[in-house]
Amino acid sequence: MDSFRRDGLTFDVRDAGPADGEPVVLLHGFPQDSTAWDRVAPALHQRGLRTLAPDQRGYSPSARPRGRAHYRLRETADDVLALLDAAGLGSAHVVGHDWGGIVAWALGAWHPERVRTLTALSVPHPAAMARAAATSDQALRSAYVGLFQLPVLPERLLLAGNGAVLRRVLRRGGLPDDAVERYVRRMREPGALTAALAWYRALPWSGRDPVGTVRVPTLHVWSTGDAFLGRAATEGTARFVDAPYRLEVLDDVTHWIPELAAARTAELVTAHVRG
């Protein structure tokens, strides 16, 4: 399958690997798209796993509804359920990075019957994140979230000079130039950046549906070079998982784990899926 539909929206999806392999859903974050998994997915295919990597709401050109309420966490989680339904899957292994990781946490808490295993790259459990914001430097690390919720200003700032600011931020994080250019090009599509930022602007709606305890086997991968997500929230995550849980720490890797630690990510996901 190369697409699926929900509520009149059409989502692009990359469905690849052995058709009879264990299904693994790969959820990207901001400002990525499904190409974030371009180095991870082939390694999973070599290990006999099938991958389904959608361009999520706001990133697929035909799935950019207007209005921030359309981007609350309940909607983005239900998009993944629609993907599973379209693929004829009762459940799948779910891997998410950044915002995709938050969707993965929500699915593990709200729909454990649809999640065989959960792998969250970078992002801690949302409740651990909230606690850490009050007790550590996490609030400072997350200051950009408040900026991204402002109207108009973030778009003007990030896309100034044909995306020069966004390009510079991504390069400072260590992303290779080809990935930087792909993501900047996508964000320069009409309405794309506004739709992607709507995930942040929908936080007041998302907060009405707290992510509770996760009851599926969980792997959490965090990197010491992550400028946005600190150790306090990471170490506080285990208390919100009532199932086998493992924390894997990658040294000297920045926030962009799928692109910068693809081989190790594939190894960890494979072991978690088969475990």
Provide a short characterization of the protein structure.
The chain has about 280 residues and is an alpha/beta fold.
- Strand tally is 8
The CATH homologous superfamily is named: Alpha/Beta hydrolase fold, catalytic domain
Average pLDDT: 97
Give me the strand/helix succession: EEEHEHEHEHHHHHHHEHEHH
CATH architecture field = 3-Layer(aba) Sandwich
User: Unreliable segments (pLDDT under 50, ≥5 consecutive)?
Assistant: none
Can you give the helix content as a percent range?
40-55%
Structural features, described:
This protein has 275 residues and is of the alpha/beta class. It has one domain: Rossmann fold (3-Layer(aba) Sandwich). It has helices spanning 40-46, 73-86, 99-110, 126-135, 138-141, 143-148, 153-172, 177-187, 192-201, 203-206, 231-235, 257-260, 262-274, and strands spanning 3-6, 9-16, 22-27, 49-54, 92-97, 115-121, 218-223, 245-250. An eight-stranded mixed sheet has the order 1-2-4-3-5-6-7-8. The protein is globular. 50% of the residues are buried.
How would the blueprint of this fold be written?
Layout: E1 3-6, E2 9-16, E3 22-27, H1 40-46, E4 49-54, H2 73-86, E5 92-97, H3 99-110, E6 115-121, H4 126-135, H5 138-141, H6 143-148, H7 153-172, H8 177-187, H9 192-201, H10 203-206, E7 218-223, H11 231-235, E8 245-250, H12 257-260, H13 262-274
Parallel strand pairs: 3-4, 3-5, 5-6, 6-7, 7-8
Antiparallel strand pairs: 1-2, 2-4
